[in-house]
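Let's practice the habit of predicting before peeking. Look at the sequence and jot down your guess about where helices and strands might fall. Then scroll down.
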Amino acid sequence: MHASRRESADGSADGSGDGSGGGSARGSAGGSDALVIGGGIIGLVTAWRAAARGLRTVLADPAPGGGAAQVAAGMLAPVTELHYGEEALLGLGLASAARYPDFAAELAEASGIDIGYRACGTLSVALDADDRLHLRELHALQRRCGLESEWLTGRECRRLEPLLAPGVRGGLRVDGDHQVDPRRLAAALLAACERAGVIIHRARAERLLVTADRAAGALLDDGTRVRAHQVVLAAGSLSGRLAGVPPQAAVPVRPVKGQVLRLTVPPAYAPFLSRTVRAVVRGSHVYLVPRENGELVVGATSEELGWDTTVTAGGVYELLRDAHELVPGITELPLTETRAGLRPGSPDNAPLLGPTELPGLHLATGHYRNGVLLTPLTGDALADLLTTGELPAVARPFSPRRFSAAPQESYA
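Done guessing? Here is the structure:
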């Protein structure tokens, strides 16, 4: 039954569509209401929410459910991720984090998959005097922004997490920063899309189709032409590589490499950590995220190396070295996986949400290190845009048009 709907919903499963009619009325014969290009968590949540609003929705991705989420740690940490100069992004993160409990429950019901949402909190610690000063300054910034965080002495930190190194000098306890399992999140969103009737083409979008100066769909690498009244480009770090996008709507995203490790906590070692623990060690950020299933995620490097996804000995060594300084017992755990992925970074490291200078083409990309955190809000914001033509107020500062006046650097 699903296959027959696929053929009838987009009118072009045999590759015979001509790409015209992009500006036709919603629900017109032979076209979809919305085409989402990209099947990572951002593309999937956009498609799921659009379908839930009654839009005939198509998604194109050669491996839906993959992407950066397979490498992400899944921290929902708008407070501990706060950086100077990113106060506007903080509001977006807090708004999305507040949606997560209901979002997780709704998605579990829609998909039959628990996404591993845990309200376990985060502990950011300092290992030397410079780190302690940095954390004190961050605490002051958090307080100025009205955020809840508690300063702890080194002894109080070790009381919370007994396996921390004796040299921990202090830390910030943030009970409001939580976590999910991004791999389960991706699997749940894919299942929810399928159950909601989203038509999924397991093929790569090769070229944007433009008719009468309006986005009209996409040509896929299997020869299929998918026609759509509106197109959402949500292909992560690959978003800037889609052919056919006119210069005025160029997508300024770049790949930022991150290496991550996964270890297993044997039952004899449990409980190893009760919450996410993070620190800055010799200027590099490191975090340890414990899962309920006994997995421990350690990450993440941040490397501006283009499209390279090689797992390097140096990257693995640095992560293990820094994690060992934070929690010495980590070297006793089995190392079960090493991965590298690409985060989509924008010029200001904030997401690109909403209409471009090309009518009918919208962006949902550039989430950088906040893709998992911003998943619920992004899905709702793009669904609002697709159905009403307007972004919600919280998302408007992140319009792609904020870069339109400046010359665009090529990230392809």
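How did you do? The first helix runs from residue 2 to 10.
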